Amino acid sequence: MCGMATGESTRASVHEPEPVRPTHEDRVAAAGSELIGGPLGRHALLGASWWTPVRVIALVAIGMFALGLVQKAPCYNGAWFFGASSQYTHACYSDIPHLYQGRGFADGLVPYFDRLSGDMEYLEYPVLTGLFMETAAWLTPGSGTIQYQEQWYWMVNAGMLMVCAAVIAVCVTRTHARRPWDGLLVALAPALALTATINWDLLAVALTAAAMLMWSRGRPLAFGVLLGLATAAKLYPVLLLGPLLVLCWRAGRWRAYGKALAGAIVAWLVVNGPVMLFAFDGWSKFYRFSQERGVDFGSFWLILAQNSDDPLSTDTVNMFATLLMLLCCAGVAALVLMAPRRPRFAQLAFLIVAAFILTNKVYSPQYVLWLVPLAVLARPRWRDFLVWQACEVAYFLGIWMYLAYTTSGDAHKGLPADGYHWAIAVHLLGTLYLCAVVVRDILMPERDPVRQSGDDDPSGGVLDGADDVFVLGPAARPARHAAHFEGPRVEWGRTGVTGGSL
């Protein structure tokens, strides 16, 4: 009986698709693996090892997050409290300790319900992020000096955000089942380590990554619920419903899209409804602030404003930014319907969020976190990812050096406005470069690294391998169908996905 069980198990493993090993298909990954002994051989047996890709990548993500905490040490030890300029020269600024007192958490005020002193009036964050901030405040000791409490508040938030970072890495690792090691791109992303504790964006990013995982598993309702929660933490996740609508249109998957949309609306209303009903002024502050906020750091609008004798008004910038975003949405829709092969969901999710970032009137350095998991799923190639990350690190340093320059008085320590404009340009060009590569992959599917491995759309869920029912342009003559992936034959002794080698 033991022999029979073993034989059945062995025969079952033959039909498991072979995991993709980046060190065997990516020259940069192969070269980097030499630091840890080089790529594993084809007959390496890791199936029974505790060190599965998910566990390895989660631990690496936590390790990189911890390095990011160490990078903030100069500020934790005093720069947040005693030196406005030094928190910029050390590039360790964070909103978290400053808003502990500045948004009433130190005084026990209830977000959205209790009015703040000063011009801000109410907390200017979405409801789920406000709940996250308030939860951290409950866990922060209320005794000691305000500096001591702010240090604790930052540390409590850091612990909660570390969980979010691990969730993101695990979700990306599991979304493309045959490509688990792509999750290392998320775990090792320099921008994640540097910006993770600037603000609370990782909460929305983690919920969005979990939503993408649910969609890839064919669970549209769970996807919608998680995306609705993500939108209750930050506005950008709702953008994913746009390209998904056009993809489902092309594939005729209306029922799945309806479930996703319904789940998103209900989840968003459950979180926002009570606050909207009983504290409308506080609830609406986030949306009013987003509309009324002027041109700010990181955007090409700032370059135009600082080089113009008559800068555009906020209302005019809002109008033009909205028009540019609508044009980008139309371009993405046309790309979906006219591409020679239906694009992958992750590709379009990356493009639509990148378009929002590029056209928006502000780009805070932590916004890069929105794109990291989407970029990995859209274009899992180490060279392109690292080129983009290098540009984002350059911008990360540029904004702090610019702020150091503006706050150092006559000393002028840091980067003047012209230098900061170049840093903005580097960020814009890096993001545009990655967008261009993704668009090229869509127009030339044979260049797409995911499809080169034999998959169709592993993040697409019900779209994966589906036939097209509505296509425009040359692709409609005749209408092309998505290829149904049949996994390559796994040779005897190969490992399954959970034990895939790097």
UniProtKB/TrEMBL annotation:
<feature type="region of interest" description="Disordered">
    <location>
        <begin position="1"/>
        <end position="23"/>
    </location>
</feature>
<protein>
    <recommendedName>
        <fullName>DUF2029 domain-containing protein</fullName>
    </recommendedName>
</protein>
<keyword id="KW-1003">Cell membrane</keyword>
<feature type="transmembrane region" description="Helical">
    <location>
        <begin position="260"/>
        <end position="280"/>
    </location>
</feature>
<feature type="transmembrane region" description="Helical">
    <location>
        <begin position="122"/>
        <end position="140"/>
    </location>
</feature>
<feature type="transmembrane region" description="Helical">
    <location>
        <begin position="345"/>
        <end position="365"/>
    </location>
</feature>
<dbReference type="InterPro" id="IPR016570">
    <property type="entry name" value="UCP010361"/>
</dbReference>
<keyword id="KW-1133">Transmembrane helix</keyword>
<feature type="transmembrane region" description="Helical">
    <location>
        <begin position="317"/>
        <end position="338"/>
    </location>
</feature>
<feature type="compositionally biased region" description="Basic and acidic residues">
    <location>
        <begin position="13"/>
        <end position="23"/>
    </location>
</feature>
<feature type="transmembrane region" description="Helical">
    <location>
        <begin position="152"/>
        <end position="172"/>
    </location>
</feature>
<keyword id="KW-0472">Membrane</keyword>
<dbReference type="GO" id="GO:0005886">
    <property type="term" value="C:plasma membrane"/>
</dbReference>
<feature type="transmembrane region" description="Helical">
    <location>
        <begin position="419"/>
        <end position="439"/>
    </location>
</feature>
<keyword id="KW-0808">Transferase</keyword>
<feature type="transmembrane region" description="Helical">
    <location>
        <begin position="221"/>
        <end position="248"/>
    </location>
</feature>
<feature type="transmembrane region" description="Helical">
    <location>
        <begin position="184"/>
        <end position="215"/>
    </location>
</feature>
<feature type="transmembrane region" description="Helical">
    <location>
        <begin position="385"/>
        <end position="407"/>
    </location>
</feature>
<feature type="transmembrane region" description="Helical">
    <location>
        <begin position="50"/>
        <end position="70"/>
    </location>
</feature>
<dbReference type="GO" id="GO:0016758">
    <property type="term" value="F:hexosyltransferase activity"/>
</dbReference>
<dbReference type="InterPro" id="IPR018584">
    <property type="entry name" value="GT87"/>
</dbReference>
<keyword id="KW-0812">Transmembrane</keyword>
<comment type="similarity">
    <text>Belongs to the glycosyltransferase 87 family.</text>
</comment>
<dbReference type="Pfam" id="PF09594">
    <property type="entry name" value="GT87"/>
</dbReference>
